[in-house]
Here is the input.
Amino acid sequence: MSYKVGIVGATGAVGQELLSLLESRAFPVSELKLFASARSAGKRIEALGRAVEVEEATDSCFGGLDFVIFAASGSLAKELCPAAAAAGAVAIDNSSAFRMDPEVPLVIPEINPEAAREHKGIIANPNCTTAIALMATYPLHQQFGLKRLITSTYQAVSGSGVAAMAELETQMGQLSRGEETTVDAYPYQIALNALPHVDAFLETGYTKEEMKIVNESRKIMGIPDLIASCTCVRIPVMRSHSVSINAEFERPVSVEAARAAIEAAPGIDLVDDPEALRYPMPLEFAQKENCGAGRFRKDLAFENGLAYWVAGDQLWKGAALNTVQIAECLAES
Here is the structure.
């Protein structure tokens, strides 16, 4: 069986990765429609071996489609996802617009595929860092019973879009030539720097990004009373996020059992050989479907605790790949 697929935000970074992954994973597409803002309408994009003209995304453009994947802003998704669902398509949304809606499943296919099949027309894709962190954390939860989750993120500029990626590259060139850096995408220079600030600050002092990770982790893993805290940091890496995690569990833990759980889990590679200096790094996991986990050790602060490190491609498992996998999950059911 083949499917008619639409992509909203097709000209952006995630949209471009979606097109690449639909082709490389041989998703059965019988018809492809690409949508973007009015200023991008009329452009032609090479996709799935043919040139496709970009159309303006409106609430009346989704007729006849089976899947509509949204790689656009939350405000546009809030407006158009219900229209796609009303037209008979399954809307799979990359933004934060519907993630905490109790009527909308929030899905990582390796963790809760059954939730996708219970959709009411809209399925939410998790925050990129949440997805990467939980790929390693969920197998440990299954083994030991997760009680507390403390995370610190090291997030690539790809999470801010194409302009931020270009700015990092430009700043590195400016610094190498001894020039003053051009700053636009972030409040400060990102090259050779680290910004403990991802998304807008809330009254609590946490950022929206930090609370996304806390709240989405609870929903996806089905642990509403999970004790969790997060600090998000933007670093000068192009496209893969990393996360330092300290987790406390209900049951006794061991490094050996944790490694075995990771090795048995789908979508995650164990890269954990300190003597050989082997651990997951952003460069190693760029444009790689699996995430990587390593640096496993007993946590010194928690009685039943583990400390570990995860890395994964923000544009793939953190966004485009996960949405394609959700569509695959539904296509197989």
Notes: The two ends are 12 Å apart (CA to CA). The mean pLDDT is 96. Residues 151 and 230 are 5 Å apart (CA to CA).
